[in-house]
């Protein structure tokens, strides 16, 4: 399954990507279980350091029995991508467009979500065949940036990432994002209720 098909399949059902960073394996699995109960299908565990790999491994193992998909985030090198692939990551996410990561993801058949923050980067990602893109850092870019970029790039499906929570998720969805990436909001009952209300049924 290519990246577009993979993200279409999962994020069209519920447009939320859960991101759980800097948590130990036990806490990561607990957050994953809460997100799964909410209906989230995709979880990202960032692996900016090798110390995060045990948490990724634990989340991947927990997902197996639930039919869920756990991926690795902050993947910026081919070596990282190979390592998380070996651990069973179902997809990868990057803060930017890294050519060697793109090449390795294609070689391994692993869906990849690259990050963009400018029109030039969007054009480059589209040239590589990506239409699902991580808008990062979304809070700093603003919901208006999303709407502005969709005018010249209507085929792009943005996942707003970075500073997204229950207070601003609706703004980014209204601006045209196809999904939002959130973390701590998935562990707060009040925020969770607001988040549910902000996401189209």
What does this structure look like?
47% of the residues are buried. The longest helix is centred in the first third of the chain and has 14 residues, at 25-38. Strand 4, helix 5 and strand 5 (112-113) form a beta-alpha-beta unit. The chain has helices spanning 3-11, 25-38, 53-64, 78-87, 99-108, 119-127, 138-141, 143-150, 169-174, 189-198; strands spanning 16-19, 42-46, 69-73, 92-93, 112-113, 115-116, 132-135, 157-160, 179-182. The protein has one domain (3-198): Aldolase class I (TIM Barrel, Alpha-Beta Barrel). With 201 residues, the chain is of the alpha/beta class. The strands form two sheets. The protein has a seven-stranded parallel sheet with strand order 3-2-1-9-8-7-6, with helices on both faces. The chain has a two-stranded parallel sheet with strand order 4-5. The mean pLDDT is 93. It is built from ten helices and nine strands.
| β-strand amount | 15-25%
Tell me the number of structural domains: 1
For the sheet with most strands, the description reads: 7 strands, parallel
- Assign the CATH superfamily: Aldolase class I
Gross morphology? globular
Subunit structure: Homotrimer.
Protein name: Bifunctional 4-hydroxy-2-oxoglutarate aldolase/2-dehydro-3-deoxy-phosphogluconate aldolase
Pathway: Carbohydrate acid metabolism
Family: Belongs to the KHG/KDPG aldolase family.
């Amino acid at each position: 399954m290519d990246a577009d098909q993979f993200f279409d399949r999962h994020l069209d059902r519920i447009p939320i990507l859960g991101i759980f960073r800097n948590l130990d394996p036990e806490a990561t699995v607990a957050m994953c279980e809460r997100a799964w109960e909410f209906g989230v299908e995709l979880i990202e565990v960032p692996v900016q350091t090798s110390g995060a790999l045990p948490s990724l491994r634990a989340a991947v193992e927990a997902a197996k029995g639930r039919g869920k998909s756990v991926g690795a985030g902050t993947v910026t090198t081919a070596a990282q991508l190979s390592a998380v692939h070996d651990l069973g990551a179902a997809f990868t996410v990057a803060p930017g467009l890294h050519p060697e990561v793109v090449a390795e993801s294609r070689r391994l058949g692993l869906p990849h979500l690259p990050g963009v923050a400018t029109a030039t980067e969007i054009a480059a990602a589209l040239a590589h065949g990506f239409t699902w893109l991580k808008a990062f850092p979304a809070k700093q870019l603003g919901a208006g940036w999303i709407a502005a970029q969709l005018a010249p790039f209507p085929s792009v499906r943005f996942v707003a990432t970075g500073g997204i929570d229950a207070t601003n998720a609706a703004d980014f969805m209204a601006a045209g994002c196809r999904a939002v990436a959130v973390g701590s909001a998935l562990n707060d009952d009040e925020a969770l209720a607001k988040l549910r209300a902000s996401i189209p049924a």
